[in-house]
Design goal:
121 residues; mainly beta; Thrombin, subunit H; six-stranded antiparallel β-barrel; 10% helix; globular
Length: 121
């Protein structure tokens, strides 16, 4: 069953109405330093991006943090279907920075774009 372009546009607009927060999407710039290494800086490339950020615990995840076992929380970010977003970027939401681990980008009739994140400490 196919849907029309107009129906898809309505579905995308409806999805965008359910993005209650805003975030900033940053792009990295790498610069060679004086000793032959690289330094990174992050530029606020997309600001005031409508989004929704939610914690997800798809399965129990643990990691060693400071010599102790700690639970690891994953996050899912939802943005508009046509928002530029890839694994080389970083997201800032409520002053917290997140790395993009994976983009969910395989759906037909995409109404939103989702990214799986981990917090930058």
């Amino acid at each position: 069953m196919a849907i029309s372009a107009a129906e898809l546009a309505r579905m995308q607009a409806t999805a965008e109405d359910h993005l209650p927060d805003t975030c900033t999407i940053q792009v990295v710039t790498q610069t060679m330093d004086e000793i032959g290494g690289w330094s990174e800086s992050w530029a606020n490339t997309y600001t005031s991006v409508a989004c929704r950020l939610a914690a997800v615990q798809a399965r129990a995840a643990e990691a060693i943090v400071g010599a102790e076992l700690a639970a690891v929380t994953s996050w899912v970010l939802t943005v508009a279907h046509d928002q530029a977003l890839d694994e080389t970027m970083r997201v800032v939401h409520d002053s917290e920075a997140y790395e993009i681990v994976q983009i969910e980008d395989t759906q037909s009739w995409r109404t939103a774009k989702r990214a799986y994140l981990r917090r930058v400490d």
